[in-house]
């Protein structure tokens, strides 16, 4: 038998299809290995699939080759099928969308290059009368002045529409980071700013820096949709830090949507990063509480925020005195947490710094970025915001947020930075007492929180109602009025509370 590669070209089409069918029998494969090898030829399989499903359905994802014989739906098979005349428009252009998702660049390039061929008849101009030496046709045309119609094939519009579904193919490729496919589609006319900048936002949200760089190079607008791509990249965390950097360099507005990008970064904050291993003289982790020391310098705050992690590629221009020296966050702890989609969780500290360096307002919405970081206990993020000028006395009450949630390191940091301990009628002390966070209560008392007046009584009542004897004892020892009738009524219901205060039950 001839070589299999020669057989699939020499045998008729019907014979090749029969070879493919019969060669699936194991017993027949044992009779002739060459016969079986012919059946495994790519050309033979493609021709059989074309005969089985038809030219218009073979590439339909619902009823064609992908659905009935998915193991044969490979890039090489699809390319052969397209060369044999398979219709790429089947199944709402399934082959284009699937090739974009899988990153099959040759398939995408072939599909977008395919053109519909049509045949028209063109009138040939009549020639003048020919001499005796002219060709017979010329003599006849010249003598009769007849008009001859000649068929002429020509290419019309592309077979597939790259703009279908609001440039769905491009959006699929961008969302999966297929940078080479993005370039092919853009060269075929796909709109890189389709759906109000959706391709760019999808690439940014997936932290696909190569695809995002390709879109920007092809003219994608970084400010489309109020810089929605920047927000998508920020929400992806430090894994998308290069995307954030590229978008900011391309003109994205760091303050878009009322500084929602910075708010999101500060809410997620330190993430999986460990607490700073050094206090740098700030005494944030001390055992005994004492009066806060002098305000930390900007260098101390930057070192506290970014110490212990790898440096960034380099800071950009910052507000006020500038970003200054100091390391920035780099590689994140692997496998500590995972987001819902399965992607490893990261911090948002690096993207927060990039936003601050490019003009985001650390005091936006009444100081809410710092309040978010304080409420979540993000020591590094709070230090970074303070280094870039956030006000610890802002209306959003970051000290009260940190105290209410028991984040004593952030409480001490804010007190050192100048937060007013009695702001909001003692809201910080009340929050710490209500939650039973005795370390935060003691830190606030050491900083001079007022307990002699109504603020102390209200804090006592809250601690008693919550059943926190240690917090009650700390407040009473600091001078809070334990004779208040409402407090005593709440305290005397608990044996532990009576024991802590040395109170005897009423007769």
UniProtKB/TrEMBL annotation:
Pfam families: Ank_2 (PF12796)
Basic and acidic residues composition-biased segments: 276-291
SUPFAM superfamilies per the UniProt record, alphabetical: Ankyrin repeat
UniProt cross-references to InterPro entries, sorted A to Z: Ankyrin_rpt, Ankyrin_rpt-contain_sf, Cul2-RING_E3_ligase_SR
Segments annotated as ANK repeats: 165-197, 394-426
Annotated signal sequence range: none
Region described as Disordered: spans on this chain: 276-295, 310-341
Compositionally biased spans, kind Pro residues: 314-332
Top-rank taxon, per record: Eukaryota
Keywords from the named record: ANK repeat
PROSITE patterns: ANK_REP_REGION, ANK_REPEAT
The protein's name in its UniProt record: Ankyrin repeat protein
């Amino acid at each position: 038998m001839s070589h299999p590669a020669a057989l699939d070209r020499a045998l008729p089409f019907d014979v090749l299809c029969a070879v493919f069918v019969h060669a699936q029998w194991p017993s027949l494969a044992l009779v002739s290995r060459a016969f079986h090898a012919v059946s495994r030829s790519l050309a033979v399989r493609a021709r059989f699939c074309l005969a089985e499903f038809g030219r218009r359905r073979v590439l339909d994802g619902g009823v064609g080759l992908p659905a009935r014989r998915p193991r044969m739906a490979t890039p090489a098979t699809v390319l052969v099928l397209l060369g044999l005349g398979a219709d790429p428009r089947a199944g709402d252009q399934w082959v284009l969308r699937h090739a974009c998702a899988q990153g099959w660049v040759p398939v995408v390039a072939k599909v977008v290059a395919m053109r519909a061929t049509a045949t028209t008849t063109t009138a040939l101009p009549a020639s003048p009368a020919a001499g005796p030496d002219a060709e017979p046709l010329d003599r006849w045309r010249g003598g009769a002045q007849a008009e001859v119609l000649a068929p002429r094939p020509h290419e019309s519009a592309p077979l597939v529409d790259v703009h279908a579904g609001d440039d769905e193919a491009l959006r699929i490729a961008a969302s999966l980071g297929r940078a080479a496919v993005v370039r092919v589609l853009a060269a075929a006319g796909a709109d890189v700013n389709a759906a109000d900048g959706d391709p760019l936002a999808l690439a940014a949200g997936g932290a696909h820096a190569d695809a995002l760089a390709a879109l920007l190079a092809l003219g994608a607008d970084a400010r489309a949709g109020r810089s929605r791509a920047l927000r998508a990249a920020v929400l992806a965390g430090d894994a998308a830090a290069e995307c954030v950097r590229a978008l900011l360099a391309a003109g994205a507005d760091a303050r878009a949507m009322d500084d929602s990008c910075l708010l999101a970064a500060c809410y997620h904050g330190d993430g999986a990063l460990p607490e700073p291993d050094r206090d740098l003289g700030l005494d944030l982790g001390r055992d005994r509480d004492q009066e806060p020391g002098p305000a930390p310098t900007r260098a101390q705050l930057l070192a506290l925020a970014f110490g212990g992690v790898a440096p960034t590629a380099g800071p950009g221009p910052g507000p006020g005195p500038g970003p200054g020296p100091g390391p920035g966050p780099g590689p994140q702890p692997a496998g500590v947490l995972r987001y819902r989609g399965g992607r490893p969780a990261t911090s948002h500290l690096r993207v927060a710094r990039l936003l601050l360096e490019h003009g985001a307002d650390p005091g936006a919405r009444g100081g809410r970025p710092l309040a978010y970081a304080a409420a979540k206990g993000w020591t590094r993020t709070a230090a970074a915001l303070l280094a870039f000028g956030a006000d610890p006395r802002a209306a959003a009450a970051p000290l009260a947020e940190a105290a209410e949630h028991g984040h004593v390191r952030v409480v001490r940091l804010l007190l050192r930075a100048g937060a007013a301990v009695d702001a909001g009628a003692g809201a910080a002390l009340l929050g710490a007492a209500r939650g039973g966070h005795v370390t935060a209560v003691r830190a606030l008392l050491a900083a001079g929180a007022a307990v002699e007046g109504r603020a102390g009584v209200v804090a006592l009542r809250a601690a008693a109602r919550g059943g926190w004897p240690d917090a009650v004892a700390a407040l009473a020892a600091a001078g809070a009025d334990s004779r208040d009738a409402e407090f005593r009524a709440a305290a005397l219901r608990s044996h532990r509370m009576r024991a802590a205060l040395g109170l005897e039950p009423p007769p």
